[in-house]
Design goal:
The chain is an all-alpha fold and 168 residues long. The protein is built from nine helices and no strands.
């Protein structure tokens, strides 16, 4: 009976954290999950689906926050990668929670990539990148032989053969 009561309380905390994310109160969701997940690990099995769900919620709270640092985004990706492996092993690849974690992981990676990639405006201010900006753009090899309108200047072979009577 006591174990059931703990599980119900942990499930309520998980649902509350999920609601906090929906309300965009990410900091509160992170704090709640940081306090609740260790308790859940003591009370439940490590591979319990509730712990998997809580860790997913924690990862989402980390990367959804507009004020997330690079370290937060990296932690989100690491957390979601780890919980994704656990979910795939325990629940299977087609389980809805597993697919939800994989979607969250893709979004977390995209957020991290967007934050790590310097903007073009940031490059212009970087003195080490100034030399790269001054260089003329190079044309692709196939376009180097083409005329300004993008054609090669030659008619297609079928048209050339039809137009040139000496080729017959």
């Amino acid at each position: 009976m006591t174990s059931t009561l703990y599980e119900e309380t942990l499930r309520a905390a998980s649902n509350y954290a999920n609601s906090l994310i929906y309300l965009q109160r990410f900091e509160e969701a992170k704090v709640l999950m940081r306090k609740t997940i260790p308790v859940a690990r003591r009370v439940l099995r490590e591979n319990d689906d509730l712990i998997v769900k809580m860790r997913k919620i924690y990862g989402e709270a980390l990367y959804h926050d507009d004020s997330a640092t690079l370290d937060d985004l990296r932690e989100a990706v690491t957390t979601l990668e780890d919980v994704g492996r656990t979910a795939r092993r325990v629940l299977g690849g087609s389980h809805p929670l597993t697919t939800a974690i994989e979607g969250a992981l893709r979004r977390a990676r995209a957020a991290l990539c967007a934050r790590e990639t310097p903007s073009p405006a940031g490059r212009a201010r970087d003195p080490s990148a100034a030399g790269d900006d001054d260089a003329a753009p190079t044309a692709p090899a196939a376009a180097a032989d083409s005329s300004p309108d993008g054609s090669s200047g030659e008619a297609p072979a079928s048209t050339r053969d039809a137009e040139d009577p000496s080729s017959k």
